[in-house]
Amino acid sequence: MAFSLPANAALWGVRASRWRVAIVAIALILAAFAGWRLVAQVEGERGIAPLANTGDFEVGGIEVNVTGKTAAEAREKGWREAQRKAWEVLYARTHDGEKAPELPDSRLESMVSAVVVEREQIGPRRYVATLGVIFDRARTGETFGTASSRARSAPQLVIPIIYQGGVGQLYEMRTPWQRAWAEHRDSESPIDYVRPNGGGGESLLLTAGQMGRRSRAWWRTILDEFGAANVIFPVARLERQYPGGPVEGTFTARYGADNRFLGTFTMTAESDEDLPRMLAEAVKRMDSIYTGAFNEGKLGADKTLNVEQDTIDPDLLAALTGALGDDDAGDAPAAQSAAEDTPTPLQTAQPQGISIAVQIATPDPASFDAALRALNSTPGVTGSTTSSLAIGGTSVLQVAYSGDISALAGALRARGWQVTQGADALRISR
């Protein structure tokens, strides 16, 4: 008797092969979609590159209202008037309110490196504007003898968090608060701000939720990544009364791995078009809060973030020691006799002193090594610990010194270093 397959067996085989092809195609589509999702988490317009600060003097908010025969002439007269007003403001700011000496327009133009147009309205014969004037630090310093450097804080990592609609955002998308910090010129601020770009992998590493993280090991890793010694959290919470209406902002300045509070204030913008102006002013007020905290000694390098040497909890160590002692009770006489035969090490007194944060300009590894050797060889220095290593930027060391900060500053100056002394920190350079 001959054996034959059912009539629909071939049809089932064709259908099974088609199902396998469909399953493989679905798997490939899902894999491609998963890969797209991974790429999409770091791509897109997220970060805003911060403005480069040259250390020049900037005076903003200069209002002018002039007329001329033509629009170009009126604008030229407005810029010259802004330069004169800005010079008076800058001189009074750096000389405790003294009246600025009169300088010819040609001299002022040689000192001005840029004019920033904040707002302007140009008519046929009228020019109304709000301008900012940037003075070259070297040329201006030659005129009124101001120092080219002053004490600055340890590098502070800036994490500008904004809450809109009850949702906290940082670098998930471009926000007006992030833009305000990126466009802030901090050349005259004593705070050394470290402002991340926010693009690429930084949007995954830095999020709004990091403000509540307390792990010292985590923060040490993050700060080392950006060459910072501490972290600050300028927080903005925006509430809109209705679409297109006023925007009320509550701004809070916080700092440190423990998310400590410094100050808060509120501001109001008339509309979304007025929001950039309000946020720019809020950044300046934030800077004044952080400056006050630095003058009070609150923004130094956080010593608790130094986790290079791990320690064991004392209670756990006592429990482990007790357990080992019970197990080795029978060997106590032998251990005691061995201990009697072991010579007692010489006990040396630990040197007493203070810990001083020292900021060092380190454009390359050789400059860091040279500064480290010079510090350790300075009389009175009993040790040093690297708090933040930033090749190409500013590194921070914690130096143990048996004396006061003024004595250490004098000793370093005697060795040929340029030293700027702050409240509880020194900044040295060659």
Give an account of the 3D structure.
This protein has 430 residues and is α/β, with parallel strands linked by helices. It is 37% helix and 25% strand. α5 (176-182) crosses α8 (275-295).
What would you report as the Rg, rounded to the nearest angstrom? 31 Å
Given the structure, what is the number of helices? Answer: 12
How is the CATH topology of the largest domain named? Rossmann fold
Mean pLDDT: 75
* Biggest beta sheet summary: 7 strands, mixed
State the total count of DSSP E strands.
15
Q: How many separate domains make up the residues?
A: 3
- CATH class of the largest domain equals Alpha Beta
Question: What structural category characterises the helix and strand content?
Answer: alpha/beta
In oligomeric terms, what are we looking at?
Answer: single chain
Summarize the helix and strand pattern as letters: HEHHEEHEEEHEHHEEEHHHEHEEHEE
Cα separation of the termini: 104 Å
Strand percentage, roughly?
25-35%
Just name the CATH architecture of the largest domain.
Answer: 3-Layer(aba) Sandwich
Biased composition (Low complexity): 331-343
Protein name: Heavy-metal-associated domain-containing protein
Transmembrane segments: 21-39
Keywords: Membrane, Transmembrane, Transmembrane helix
